[in-house]
From TrEMBL:
The protein, known as: Uncharacterized protein
Length: 99
């Protein structure tokens, strides 16, 4: 079981790309090279919000009491959700087979 990576285009008015890597240990790496921003939240710190233009991925950064919102197309947000679910399910299957 390996981490999965994918590149998405953000809906921010500029053509910014975000590189997303989902790890089996329930963390996610989010890198926005053009903005020199990098986040590594746990999956529990993420949620999606539906907007009129697409979907927002909201990162709750409790230690800093900040929120970061990334705007995705609905299609990309659904693909990211699916990738997260697949990685989590693979991790759970592996853990249950080890018991």
């Amino acid at each position: 079981m390996l981490a999965r990576e994918r590149r998405y285009t953000l809906l921010s008015g500029a053509d910014f790309y975000v590189n997303v890597k989902v790890h089996p240990c329930c963390t996610i790496e989010i890198d926005i090279p053009e903005q020199r921003q990098y986040f590594r939240p746990t999956l529990e710190q993420l949620h999606f919000k539906l907007t009129s233009q697409g979907m927002q991925l909201v990162i709750d950064q409790h230690e800093e009491e900040l929120q970061k919102e990334l705007h995705f197309s609905r299609e990309d947000a659904m693909a990211l959700c699916k990738m997260i679910n697949e990685v989590v399910e693979e991790h759970e299957d592996l853990m249950s087979s080890l018991c």
